[in-house]
Amino acid sequence: MVFSVDDCFRTSLAEARAEFISAAHGVDFTLRSLTHPLQESTRVPLTVEVARTGAREPEHLLVLTSGVHGVELMAGSGCQVNLIRSGHCENLPDGTAVLMIHGVNPVGAWRMTRTAEDLVDLCRNFPDFDSLDAGGEEYERVHATLMAGEDYSAVERLMEEMGKRRFVQALMDGQYRHEDGFGFGGTRPLWAHRVLLRILRDEARGANRVTIVDLHSGAGAFGAGMVVCMHTGKALALARRRFGQALIAPRDAQAGEYRDALGHCADGYERALSGRELTSIVLELGTYPLDEGLRAIIESHWAEVRGDYGTARRRKVDAAMLRHHLPDDPLWRRAVVERCAEIFSQALS
Ligand SMILES: [Zn+2]
Fold first, then answer.
1. Ligand 1 centroid to residue 301 C-alpha, Å
2. Ligand 1 centroid – CA 2 distance (Å)
3. Last residue within a domain, chosen from 144, 167, 188
4. Can you give the pLDDT of all 349 residues of the chain as single tens digits?
5. Distance between Cα 85 and ligand 1 center (Å)
6. I want to staple 95 with a disulfide (CB 3.0 to 4.6 A). Which of 59, 225, 250, 268 is the partner?
7. Residue 42 belongs to domain with CATH number
8. What range defines the domain where residue 249 resides?
9. Are residues 255 and 342 in the same domain?
């Protein structure tokens, strides 16, 4: 079947979901859909699609997830659709099944935000809530300026003072103190957290080996696909063998300039899938330089705190969020689907 790479990418949750369902129906996938409870009040479809193909009782389950950071779904979804349409999920090695989880955080994808409901960063929502580290010491400094009157020039001055890299890291560390703050990990597991781990537990039943590739976008060089691995020890060594030595391992002693993130999804995977050989990575599809997107990311956060929906001002912010996380550029799209296909093959090796 001839298809265009561009057509795999869609610019809203509803369209991305329709494209994914049509791709999965075109080949031998079984498909199910889980509905977020907020759908009752929003009256727009807020669903997570779960599509599976390959061995019924696999030894190895390869999982590809998209949209943990809401708006990043548009890039991840296009890559998932492309993998299906280009035949990568057919003729899998014996004993292998492929599971695609589409739109893990449908609320964020619908709102064009990185966060889920209640301003929670789903990718920081997996700490041990019983013995919580409030975290984000560096973030404290950022928070005061960030939340004082939506003044972007003040944010820029602080960025200059701290250094851009340190500022961005403080923003992304994860914190459990400020409910209106950036990188807030929540006070309990979100719906998407519980559903994601339940899907993994159910679908991985009987599999000895599970590989998870979590598709993100918006950080790294334009069109590149940076591999980040939050494991340590044996699991990290295995990830390096499979995906190459260049991967970034923030929890490794030699992590260098890269910092750990609190309550990362990978902590949840480790708990849910203990006893199996688990390799999980984040594939970060790079777009524009982060300082270009940072303003959109921060203004989107302010709009959510303010409860600004449906205004012209908000639409402008949403458009900037979309552009930063899904460049409207055919060359970018071709580059990321190729990178994703390469990672897919490495994951099966
Ligand atoms: Zn992300």
1. 15
2. 31
3. 188
4. 578 999 999 999 999 999 999 999 989 899 999 999 999 999 899 999 999 999 999 999 999 999 999 999 999 999 999 999 999 999 999 999 999 999 999 999 999 999 999 999 999 999 999 988 887 788 999 999 999 989 999 999 999 999 999 999 999 999 999 999 999 999 999 999 999 999 999 999 999 999 999 999 999 999 999 999 999 999 999 999 999 999 999 998 776 677 788 999 999 999 999 999 999 999 999 999 988 899 999 999 999 999 999 999 999 999 999 999 999 999 999 999 999 999 999 999 8
5. 24
6. 59
7. 3.40.630.10
8. 6-110+190-287+326-348
9. yes
What angle (nearest 5°) sits at the alpha carbon of residue 19, between those of residues 197 and 117? 45
Distance from the CA of 319 to the center of ligand 1, in angstroms? Answer: 17
Helices (H), the chain: 13-26, 39-42, 73-85, 106-111, 137-146, 152-162, 164-172, 191-203, 233-243, 265-272, 290-306, 312-325, 330-348
Looking at 172, 188, 204, the residue that finishes a domain is: 188
How far is the centre of ligand 1, averaged over its atoms, from the C-alpha of 169 (Å)? 13
User: How many domains are contained in the chain?
Assistant: 2
71/213 same-domain check: yes
Same domain (yes/no): 98, 216: yes
CA of 143 to the centre of ligand 1 (A): 20
Q: Domain check: are 133 and 66 in the same one? A: no
Ligand 1 centroid, distance to 53 Cα (angstroms) = 26
- Please provide residue 112's backbone torsions phi and psi, each rounded to the nearest 5 degrees: 65, 30
> Is there a domain that residue 33 lies in?
yes
Q: How far apart are CA 266 and CA 250, in angstroms?
A: 12
Instruction: Measure 217 CA to ligand 1 centroid, in angstroms.
Output: 6
